[in-house]
Every structure is written in C-alpha cells, then in structure tokens.
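A quick aside before the break. I want you to see a complete sequence-to-structure record at least once, exactly as it would be stored in a machine-readable document. Don't worry about memorizing anything.
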Amino acid sequence: MKKAVVLYSGGLDSTTCLALAKDRGFEPFAISFAYGQRHSVELELAKRHAVEAGAVEHLVVEFDYRKVGGSALTADIDVPKEGIGNDIPVTYVPARNTIFLSFALGWAETLGAFDIFIGVNALDYSGYPDCRPEYIAAFETMANLATRAGVEGSGRFTVHAPLISLTKGEIIRKGLSLGVDYSRTHSCYDPTPGGVACGLCDSCRLRLKGFAEAGIEDPVRYVERREG
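That is the input. The structure line, written in tokens, reads:
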C-alpha cells in the first residue's frame, strides 16, 4: 500500500480528504499545524480524532506565525461576520498553504511517499489565492524540481486536491458516504472560549450552506446559524 501525506486541520474539508485518501488505497499520514491560529479548537479535535479518522500516524508541526501577522486568524484583527464578499478576505493567512505543503513535502520525502493530499476547494471557498487549481499545479511542479527524490528520478510527487471542483454540499455527501463523522470536525474562525462555532464568519456560513444543500443538519453547535 502506498503512503500519502494528508494535510489535516480537523476541519470539514481536510477530514473528508483524509477519508478519500484512505478510500483510494493509500496509507494516510496526517500532518497538522499549530501556528498560533485563534481557532485552535479545530487542532485539538484533529489531535483527538486523527487515528480514528484513518491516519497511520499524526504529526503536529509547531511554529508561531503570529510573528508575521497579516491575518485575522493570527493577529489582533476582527474576524468579519457580515457575510461572504468578493474580495480576498482578511482571514487569508499569507502564504499559508505554501508553508503547509512545504512541510508536507519534506515529510513525504522522508517517508518515501510521493503523494500529498490537500482539501482545498475552488468553488465554495472564501477567495483564497492558494486554493486554486493553477496554484496546486505550480506547487506540484516545484516539488519535483526542489527535492532530491524528484531530481534523482526515484519518483514523481503528485499533489492531490480531490475536493477542488466540488461544492460544499457535494463534499459533505461524499464524506458521509465514506463514513465521516462531521460532529468531530470544526470549521469556525472565531469560536467562543468554550469552542462553540460563531455561525457568522465566512467558514461557518459556507459550512452551513453545504449542509443545507446536502439536506442534512450540521451536527455541531453554533451560537447563531447563518448561510451565505
């Protein structure tokens, strides 16, 4: 069975992505990041449920991206609650997926794995530039240029983004068909101190919209429920 490194935040998309990697016959090695994010409840769920979700091993990489700032998720900036706009929102974390994928690539090369899974989505998302198909293709090209394994030809790295062209509703229906327990996931950018989702940030609204489209009630708790 081939190994694959799966970026796993504990959120809806990454948990579905982990299930998909396993369903496709890979041995999933989950990697998460503690980078100073304000929504750390998601990471705590990832730590608690990674193995149950199918991971062979779960690696948590720690670094303090609050020193860089520039995002409502890592700096003292309010998380927008007015609804989803058309511009790149302040919840975008500068270069985050590039950093995450670079760690995943390094671990994959060490493990002898040539497959990396990431749960980015280009339809129901908040407009982040590092969630687009052209970005994933560019990183894959870079991965094969920048690694010993790629240069020596011992294998070719592939970055899988199986959710990239799906709606949130389609992602949820797919996850449910694979047995994903969404009550063990969290998506909110600004949860209460007790870990309850706000229901108003972009991530909550997109998640709630997806469950509505799937015709299923979201099993997690919210302070307030809004869609779109």
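Two observations worth writing down. The chain has a mean pLDDT of 93. Strands lie at 3-7, 27-34, 57-62, 115-117, 158-160. We'll return to this after the break.
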